[in-house]
Amino acid sequence: MDVQRAADIIAAYGGDTLRWPADERAAMMRLVATNPGIAEQARAAAAMDSVFAGWALAPVVPGNAAAAAARVLASLPRRRDPTTAPAIRWMAGGGIAAALVAGMLLGGPHLHAPTAPAAHLVSDEQAFATIFTPTPEEDGSI
Questions:
Q1: How many CA atoms lie less than 13 Å away from 130 in the CB half-sphere?
Q2: pTM for the full model?
Q3: What distance in Å separates the CA atoms of residue 31 and residue 1, rounded to the nearest whole number?
Q4: CA spacing 20 to 30 A to 34: which of 52, 57, 65, 98?
């Protein structure tokens, strides 16, 4: 067993000797006992294994998939739904009421009294003549 192969096995299988390949386990254990560098790698991997062991869930088999899903959902942290908080509901209702009042107070022309048409309106012909008839200065007759 060489040091590189031992490091590869520890990186792949962790620090638990029972997870190491059975045909290389005895040689690995002898190398860990004699090589301080490999022994330190095995200890570090075992410490990491213990951290990961706390994350393990029960295995899911076809018969208990619903129970496993229920366990996972039950373990999730609960968040308070902000839309059901009383203060949020009051603020939302108040905002809608304020928008309605502002719309009625500042509403469009349909809310105002009708006005009579202006007496100073001109016909289309008068408007055309005013715009497109040259003045005496423009005509050059002056």
A1: 6
A2: 0.41
A3: 7
A4: 52
In sequence order, which residues have a C-beta less than 8 Å from that of residue 62 and are 6 or more positions away? Answer: none
Which residue's entry shows tokens 């006992």? 33
Distance CA 83, CA 71 (A): 27
At 92, the amino acid letter reads A
How many angstroms separate the first and last alpha carbons of the chain?
116
115 pLDDT above the threshold of 90: no
For residues 89 and 99, give the distance between their C-alpha atoms in angstroms, rounded to a whole number. 15
The pLDDT of residue 116: 58
Instruction: Give 9-26 pLDDT, tens digit per residue.
Output: 999 999 999 999 999 999
Eight-class DSSP state of 23: T
